[in-house]
Amino acid sequence: MKLACQEGMAPGTTLEEKLANIEQAGxxxxxxxxxxxxxxxxxxxxxxxxxxxxxxxxCAGYRGTxxxxxxxxxKQAADDIVMLLDAAGELGATGLIFVPIFGKAxxxxxxxxxxxxxxxRELLVELLGDWAEHAxxxxxxxxxxxxxxxxxxxxxTLRDAVQICEQVNNPKGLKMMxxxxxxxxEERDIPTSxxxxxxxxxxxxxxxSTRELPGYGHTDFAAGFAALREIGFDGYMALECGIPGxxxxxxxxxxxxxxxxxxxxxx
Length: 267
Hints:
The chain is an alpha/beta fold and 267 residues long. The chain is 45% helix and 15% strand. The chain is built from nine helices and eight strands. The protein has an eight-stranded parallel beta barrel with strand order 1-2-3-4-5-6-7-8, surrounded by five helices. The radius of gyration is 18 Å and the shape is globular. The termini are close together.
């Protein structure tokens, strides 16, 4: 297992400075925001070529909403997702992190024939079939992310994501990621849920129960890491959280030490 940090969390005014600080703080990769990424691909390539910190993942950043009731809005999301999958493949990233919908359902409820959620799930599987195949051909993955009940109504648990992945059944193009913060809300037992998801998990997000840096809450990372080891996970785990205090570099360094100690607890 390897630690990564989101670009937006790192101190520095240029990408080169951010990558240097990420490495100095003890992280082995960088996760990029997808918004505007296609326009700065060459900048990213130059910066990562000079550094020893590769791009691990692209976090969303597409416009539109894949499960919107509006065709044009769905098409905008689809076009952006395809472009970002191509960028992920070009950068050698594990994949593009994908959230189907935030908030409430936007598709019209057609009960008693089908509820809005039933329609959403069917549409999602249809869309993911095409995008997963595009990801496979691009040499990357689309990473389905469960959130929590306060941020989405649809995919909230690891099991929810696994069921969709199983329906699409293209593990070389579609897998999932898990986030310790969302799991702290939705999963009754985080290690058990990780074990049940198995090798569908291809990426992790790190945040404590407070949604701050690991070490500032009560999440049992050692137990979670042990479960990840048990399923053979050896990918990247990227910070996605707030940083307490004013000295970002010091706090990121402290959290890296904390996380590595929790990983050592599992060996």
